[in-house]
Design brief:
heterodimer; A: alpha+beta; Sufe protein. Chain: A; about 30% helix; B: alpha/beta; 6-stranded parallel β-sheet; 6-stranded antiparallel β-sheet; 15 helices; about 50% helix
Chain lengths: ~190, ~475
């Protein structure tokens, strides 16, 4: 067999390994809540647009919340005390003109509905955000969302928008949460 | 007449020791010979790089998505993370195993189909283990948040795509178990083969839950497209390389042009057809033969070519050793046959100019007969022919003529092992006595498993380097 040249041996190999590195770099890096302490994004809060009272409510489609599976012996535990992880750093001070709390649309993802209420300033920067509905049809959903929703709440305020990374292990909840939040932001920005 | 090894040879001193000859070149085959094999263009580094990149991508996906962090984040998350990793690895290993049986020529020409099938089996076993881990970890993870009974219900159907994945896991489990050596022997080859095909269905129906529920794939578009792409690439390989080759062979079948008895329960079948002009092949290789006849068309068996293949004909020598081979020996002239191949890496090229020794058991003479036709006198071929009885020495006259034309010789050894004068006819002592320059020779072994093993042991003891002992592994 013909002896292969050095470059014939090395270049394809390097290309392949390099390509795999690029793939890894392109992957989504989900937040685990650990690195929340990073510096908050600088939001240009103009604070103007008085009379910003448009409240988005009507966009909620007539949603029939999927009935909990009746054969399940598990009763959905009401989520009262959500164990919210404590933030390491201070939340950025709320900009001056925040809207009153706006209720976002219900987003139905594959495990159930997710809904967010938030207050947003005139430029669309999120002042406060809170998940108000999430799937509780089975205990697994409850346990996942009990962890995920508080993190998402923090991320929304932390980044000030709906473009933060998904919570690993709660991908669907994260996506629906962001979708609901984005609808609120879009509504305010007009 | 050929010489016969008798125990007296052990003490014979009259053997001439040949000087080591300079490297020789195997002559170009005659014009009518089949197109020569194109060597594989893959280098070791290519293959290593593919494997490294593949592993990096798949384990990296899990790692980047926080797999390691989750392992230390409480039992529930740890089990979930284990589920993801074992699931990714199960599929990754399954895809590699599929690539191997897709028989890409670039790998076949390099490693030989026999070795690829052995690796396929190893990968298959690993896949079965990983799947076990995946199912167990997944169940535990799910049960840790919703209880065992709920977990069982959720994982077998209440969660969408899980019903399919459950069926997929069952099918793959059946395939893995049916391929365990001790269980596999209880089935006929065909039954086993059709059970094995369920693996395709198992993989197909499991795909949905990977994409929709897999925590590394569902939420990350890049990962998901990579995953889909990977499956598409392997599917294309299967379609074009594996099934495409079969379809081409079906569309242009060959015909049996002659079939004759060449010894005890053994026939030589010659097939020819126009499609042979486009194939690449060499002496020593084998083909998969599928006779197009009622009751036989769904069976495909590998047979060695017993003559150097030419552009218009290929000959196989087949011994009636069981149901399948019996029905093939009963075929008649004119029958259409589908021939896939040739495959295999033990060709005259492995001799690389050394003097040659062939150790043959029974009908294993077929590929040797073909290879001897390609040798030159410098190879001084010696054929050590072990057979049950005199009548099992098939193609003997033909082999003798070919070998003697090259100045070589045939040593035969017949009779049941228990009745031989020496306990182990392939011991180093006997081999060295019969063939004084055995350590300088390149050896090709062809025959049943036991013979291969005995001969390999004896040859190594006689000083033949392992790199110069060549044989096809037996995989079925």
């Amino acid at each position: 067999m013909k002896k292969e040249t050095f470059s014939r041996r090395v270049f394809p190999a390097l290309t392949l390994v390099g390509a795999s590195g690029i793939l890894l770099a392109a992957l989504d890096r989900p937040s685990t809540g650990i690195d929340l302490g990073a510096a908050p994004p600088i939001g240009t809060s103009t604070g103007a647009t008085a009379g910003d009272t448009t409240t988005i409510v009507g966009t909620t489609p007539p949603v029939t919340t999927p009935a909990p599976v009746t054969t399940s012996p598990v009763t959905p535990t009401p989520v009262t005390a959500t164990p919210a992880p404590v933030l390491a750093t201070t939340v950025p001070p709320a900009p001056a003109a925040c809207s009153s709390t706006i209720v976002g649309p219900v987003i139905n993802m594959r495990f159930g509905p997710v809904q967010v209420q938030a207050s947003v300033d005139g430029t669309g920067l999120v002042c406060a955000s809170q998940g108000i509905q999430w799937p509780t049809a089975d205990r697994r959903s409850v346990s996942i969302n009990n962890q995920a929703i508080p993190l998402l709440d923090q991320w929304a305020v932390h980044t000030g928008n709906a473009k933060f990374n998904s919570i690993s292990g709660a991908t669907y909840t994260s996506k629906a949460y962001k979708q609901s939040l984005q609808a609120i932001i879009d509504g305010v920005k007009g | 007449m050929a010489m016969t090894i008798d125990p007296g040879l052990v003490n014979s001193k009259a053997k001439k020791v040949h000087p080591v000859a300079p490297a020789r070149i195997i002559p170009p085959p005659p014009l009518s010979a089949m197109k020569p094999l194109t060597p594989s263009r893959l280098t070791d580094t290519d293959i290593a790089a593919v494997l490294v990149a593949y592993t990096v991508c798949i384990v990296g996906m899990w790692f980047v998505h926080g797999g390691v962090a989750k392992l230390t984040n409480g039992w529930s998350q740890a089990w979930t993370s284990m589920t993801s990793l074992s699931g990714l690895l199960t599929s990754a290993v399954a895809l590699l195993a599929l690539v191997l049986v897709g028989r890409p020529l670039s790998l076949e020409r390099r490693f030989g189909l026999d070795r690829m099938f052995v690796w396929h089996r190893i990968l298959g076993d690993s896949m079965g283990l990983l799947l076990g881990v995946h199912v167990a970890a997944g169940t535990i993870a799910w049960a840790s948040s919703s209880g065992w009974i709920n977990a069982m219900i959720d994982l077998t159907g209440r969660t969408s795509y899980m019903a399919l994945a459950f069926i997929g896991a069952l099918l793959i489990g059946v395939v893995t178990i049916s391929s365990l050596k001790s269980i596999r022997q209880k089935f006929s080859y065909e039954t086993w083969y059709f059970i094995h095909m369920l693996a395709y269905i198992g993989m197909a129906v499991s795909f949905g839950h990977e994409i929709v529920l897999g925590s590394d794939l569902a939420g990350d578009n890049v990962a998901r497209w990579f995953w889909v792409g990977l499956h598409v690439v392997v599917l294309c390989l299967m379609v074009f390389s594996r099934w495409g080759r079969t379809i081409r062979a079906v569309v242009r079948p060959l015909r049996i042009t002659s079939i004759e008895n060449v010894g005890h329960k053994t026939v030589a079948i010659e097939v020819s057809g126009k499609s042979l002009q486009h194939r690449e092949g060499d002496a020593g290789q084998f083909c998969f033969v599928r006779p197009l006849k009622k009751g036989l068309w769904w069976q495909s068996h590998p047979f060695s070519m017993s003559a150097a293949p030419t552009k218009d004909r290929v000959r196989f020598t087949i011994k009636d050793r069981g149901e399948a081979t019996h029905s093939i020996t009963q075929l008649v002239k004119g029958t259409k046959v589908i021939v896939e191949g040739p495959f295999g890496v033990v060709t005259p090229d492995v001799l690389a100019g050394s003097k040659a020794l062939f150790v043959v058991g029974g009908v294993g003479v077929a590929p040797v007969l073909a290879m001897v036709q390609r040798l030159v006198p410098d190879h001084e071929p010696i054929v050590l022919y072990r057979a049950h009885s005199e009548k099992d020495l098939v193609h003997f006259e033909e082999l003798k003529m070919a070998v003697e034309r090259l100045g070589g010789k045939i040593l035969t050894l017949t009779g049941p092992t228990a009745k031989l004068a020496v306990k182990d006819p392939f011991s180093a002592k006997v081999l060295t006595a019969a063939i004084p320059d055995v350590a300088q020779r390149a050896v090709v072994l062809c025959g049943p498993d036991r013979l291969l093993h005995a001969a390999r042991t004896g040859l190594k003891a006689a000083g033949v380097p392992v790199a110069r002992i060549h044989s096809e592994h037996v995989w079925w």
